[in-house]
Specification:
The complex is a heterotrimer of chains A (about 350), B (about 325) and C (about 160). Chain A is globular and about 55 Å long. Helix content of chain A is about 35%, strand content about 20%. Chain B has about 325 residues and is of the alpha/beta class. In chain B, strands 3-2-4-7-1-8 form a six-stranded mixed beta sheet. Chain B has a two-stranded antiparallel sheet with strand order 5-6. In chain B, helix 11 packs across helix 12. The longest helix of chain B has 17 residues. The relative contact order of chain C is 0.17. Chain C is mainly β and about 160 residues long. The N and C termini of chain C lie far apart (about 60 Å). In chain C, a hairpin with a 4-residue loop joins strand 3 and strand 4. In chain C, the strands form three sheets. In chain C, strands 8-7-6-9-10 form a five-stranded antiparallel beta sheet, with no helix packed on it. Chain C has a three-stranded antiparallel beta sheet with strand order 2-1-5, with helices on one face. The longest helix of chain C is centred in the first third of the chain and has 11 residues. Classes of the chains: A alpha/beta (about 350), B alpha/beta (about 325), C mainly beta (about 160). Chains in contact: A-B, A-C, B-C.
Chain lengths: ~350, ~325, ~160
């Protein structure tokens, strides 16, 4: 395997509803900033891969416009995944293994605010048996949260404690949307939006974008003082049928964590993509992340959750901590599909 | 540095306007099972699945690979979804090959599909967005003006498009999987078919199909041990350029020329017309045959139509193109 | 065995609120006043209409506004003869790529007040606007293009726009 690292990245501040700029206008400065920060000539970038969703945008071929905005001349080697940007990073990682190109640009973007996100996401479900009933994404997550409560291991206060920590940590994240000091007791006084989930248990609806530059070996060292090396990356999927899964666990997250080699050495920090408080608890247990592991210092998806970029943001937040020298080794996670159906784990390390 | 990759199994569905007998899961499984059988394998042998299809709005399912994970034997495995618009069938296969060439997986199943009958495709791809009226009327409305430009610039005879349409439909008669089997297709029949987007006639257009295509890709060891002779991947390339910009050559896009050049260099091809025995090329409207012949380096600029006229691209010509009947005979877009 | 279910209808309706974006907003404000506002690339000087806020060739943002003429040249076209959902025009109609004077790439429009079979590449056309009080923030403010009566543009003059 070739050594591949994140050498540069940028994000747009997540907002509830970006009223002025369209998706491409949000994305353009983000890509430009990621390119500028590492000083690479964009014409030297060997491969470009993006992640976005037509259904989120409400338009077919929506990623094509993004390519027009980002610039693709002279013609570039380019691909697109209808997945979170974290999987675009995965594809770029694979492409860089071939040895003929040494750098890649990846980005994920989306405006969750343009459509009714809860209903849009229910179009992911089985179109014959489930989707016609329109179970929305929060209600499905609530079923999972209920199962976790019924297991007796966690209470609603544990959920709220996740929200409290996330919002507190998000105070130091300029790109976060929700931040502040709250008390568990205070949060527990609010009404349910889908019992047992309260507003603080759910990620906000966010518009945003994220971009990263990957480079191999010596080029990575040239472009960046302390590259965040990808030591392992893996992704796995479970069945979509939540009746066929143990909702209190995430088999695919556990497997992806094992296959990525996360357990091989000490994990100091984990950026987990948990759009619901209880999902963080499930993920920590599934991946064996104990109390000594610092979780989501960025505030995580609970502080900002631009769907299709949220997973890539987790990787980029972790890379930032490695680049700054704050930590040496950590894990980033991305998810998509109802109730943590599909999970990606990426292990990053500094030298 | 990259490792060798072999295609050891292929399978496709019988393509049709409406596969009423199959659900979306049924369509992808029909192709996948045929590919696995061809490779002498079963689901357990597969390490990862790469799925491709065009806009989700066509079936009304967002990221349908999520619900197809079980149908494709993928639970507990990596599943990947590619969407690169009309090119997606090809780029899905490339992404799958990259996984093997990078040494990440030994055996990968790739499936691309479209079940166009689940909704109205022209509606789905003609974005009815505010601020602008819907004028272009589907893919034909987008491509027809470009074809007119080609005809004007190359001074090609008016019947070239008709010849391609007849040739590809005749080829399809030999392909049991093809959607269109027009037994009595003739120049007159195509010429007399309605002008939908002048200069494109009805029978010069691709049909709208339900269908899927699958391949099993393997590393070198698996390729050598395969039950049937494998097809080795010698080269692959992809290039994109923006859709609209000042001075864009839409008739002979630079991205296509550079993509072909990169591919031939990797594979050691000097003269594609001599060095290839056969080609399968994305030709959704008949006039794209001469245009792509030029773009991909088989003919000089403005000369591609002569290959069609001389019969060089026919089944028994020196450079047969789309012996399967091509997109003009079967068009599950994403596949 | 009873007959198989071969079809179910599952209506899907989702409403989106699309933000046109900063550059298109300027364009839409202009078109409501009957003006066509493009943007010029600071690097290659080409004028984009409608503007998208960037030059895809130079990969830089575009800011400078340029008013473009509502007369132009048909570079190429097709005759639409197929009914489709959401259609507003009666068929057959001509859908043309028109390069407006002062712009550097074509936009799509309908050509009328001329027999369909007389429309040709190089035809000079002029926008026909809806009445000022009926105009909104939409390209539909241009009802269609009609022949301007000027001599056809020579092929070489629009060759690079094909």
């Amino acid at each position: 395997m070739r050594d591949i690292a994140l050498v540069s990245f940028a994000q747009a501040p997540s907002v509830r509803r970006e009223q002025i700029h369209n998706e491409v206008e949000i994305l353009m400065p983000v890509v430009a900033e990621a390119v500028r920060r590492c000083g690479i000539d964009r014409r030297d970038i060997g491969f470009t891969c993006s992640g976005s969703s037509d259904y989120l945008a409400g338009l077919p071929f929506s990623f094509v416009t993004a390519l027009d905005g980002v610039g693709a001349w002279p013609p570039i080697e380019e691909s697109h995944v209808e997945m979170d940007g974290a999987w675009a990073l995965y594809e770029a990682f694979v492409r860089l293994q071939h040895g003929d190109v040494d750098s890649a640009l990846v980005f994920g973007f989306g405006k969750s605010s343009v459509g009714p996100l809860r209903e849009v996401l229910s179009l992911q479900l089985d179109p014959y048996y489930v989707a016609p009933l329109w179970p929305d994404s929060i209600s499905l997550a609530a079923l999972q949260a209920r199962a976790l409560l019924d297991s007796g291991e966690y209470g609603e206060a544990d959920f709220a404690a996740v929200a409290v920590r996330s919002r507190r940590d998000a105070k130091s994240n300029p790109n976060a949307q929700l931040s502040g000091d709250f008390a568990v007791a205070e949060l527990l006084e609010s009404d349910y939006i889908a019992s047992p989930l309260r507003r603080h248990d759910c990620a906000p609806i966010s518009d945003g974008a994220c971009a990263a530059i990957l480079a191999s070996g010596d080029l990575a060292r040239q472009l960046c003082e302390r590259p965040a090396w990808i030591r392992g990356i893996d992704h796995r999927i479970d069945t979509i049928n939540i009746g066929d899964r143990n909702l209190c666990d995430s088999a695919s997250a556990k497997l992806a964590s094992e296959k990525s080699g996360a357990a091989a050495d000490k994990i100091e920090m984990a950026e987990l993509c948990a759009p619901f408080t209880h999902q963080e608890l499930i993920l920590r247990r599934a991946m064996g992340l104990g109390d000594e592991v610092r979780i989501n210092p960025s505030g995580g998806a609970l502080a900002a959750n631009p769907v299709m970029a949220s997973g890539l943001i987790r990787i980029v937040e972790l890379a930032a901590r490695i680049q700054s020298g704050e930590i040496d080794r950590g894990l980033a996670h991305a998810t998509q599909g109802p109730c943590l159906q599909q999970n990606l784990v990426c292990v990053l390390e500094g030298e | 540095m990259s490792k060798r990759c072999a295609i050891i199994g292929v399978g496709q569905t019988h393509h049709a306007a409406v596969r009423k007998d199959l659900s979306i899961s049924g369509v992808v499984r029909e192709a996948a099972l045929r590919a696995l059988e061809d490779a002498g394998m079963d689901w357990r042998d597969i390490e990862a699945v790469v799925v491709g299809k065009a806009p989700d709005i066509i079936e009304g399912v967002m990221m349908p690979e999520l619900f197809l994970a079980e149908a494709l034997g993928c639970v507990g495995k990596p599943m990947f979804r590619v969407h690169t618009a009309g090119s997606v069938g090809g780029s899905t296969a490339l992404v799958a090959a990259h996984l093997v060439q990078a040494g990440i997986h030994k055996r990968v199943l790739t499936v691309a599909f479209e079940k166009q009958s689940e909704s109205d495709t022209t509606w789905a791809i003609t974005p009815n967005i505010p601020f602008q009226p819907p004028l272009v009327a589907g893919a034909g409305g987008y491509f027809a003006p470009i074809i007119r430009s080609y005809i004007e610039r190359s001074k090609a005879p008016a019947d070239i498009g008709i010849r391609v349409a007849v040739k590809d439909r005749k080829n399809a008669l030999r392909n049991p999987y093809a959607h269109l089997h027009l037994e009595d297709v003739s120049m007159e029949m195509v010429e007399n078919s309605p002008m939908l987007w002048d200069p494109i006639r009805y029978l010069e257009c691709c049909p709208s199909s339900d269908g899927a295509c699958a391949m099993v890709l393997s590393d070198e060891k698996g390729g050598d041990a395969a039950p049937k002779p494998p097809a080795w991947v010698h080269a692959s390339a992809m290039r994109s350029e923006p859709t609209m910009f000042p001075g864009r050559n839409q008739i002979n896009p630079r991205a296509g020329r550079e993509c072909a050049a990169a591919l031939y260099k990797q594979a050691g091809i000097d003269d594609p017309r001599k060095d290839f025995d056969v080609a399968e090329i994305y030709i959704p409207f008949s006039w794209y045959e001469p245009m792509w012949m030029e773009n991909l380096g088989f003919a000089e600029e403005n000369q591609g139509w002569k290959m069609t006229e001389e019969g060089a691209t026919a089944f028994d010509g020196d450079m047969p193109v789309n012996c399967s009947g091509g997109v003009l005979s079967s068009n599950p877009i994403g596949a | 065995m009873s007959e198989a279910v071969k079809k179910i209808v599952t209506p899907i309706s989702i409403e989106y609120t699309i933000t046109p974006g900063a550059a298109p907003t300027k364009f839409l404000r202009g078109i409501k006043e009957g003006r066509l506002l493009g943007q010029r690339c600071p690097k290659c000087s080409k004028v984009y209409l409608p503007p998208r806020g960037s030059c895809t060739v130079c990969a830089v943002p575009t800011v400078e506004e340029v008013e473009v003429s509502d007369q132009g040249t048909v570079t190429t076209f097709c005759v639409v003869n197929i009914p489709f959902y959401g259609q507003v025009q009666e068929i057959p109609y001509v859908c043309a790529a028109v390069v407006l004077d002062g712009a550097d790439l074509p936009c799509f429009g309908v050509v009328q007040e001329i027999a369909v079979e007389e429309v040709r590449m190089g035809l000079r056309v002029q926008a026909v606007w809806v009445a000022p009080e009926e105009r909104g923030y939409t390209l539909e403010n241009i009802k269609y293009f009609k022949p301007s009566g000027q001599a056809d543009a020579p092929f070489e003059s629009y060759r690079e726009h094909l």
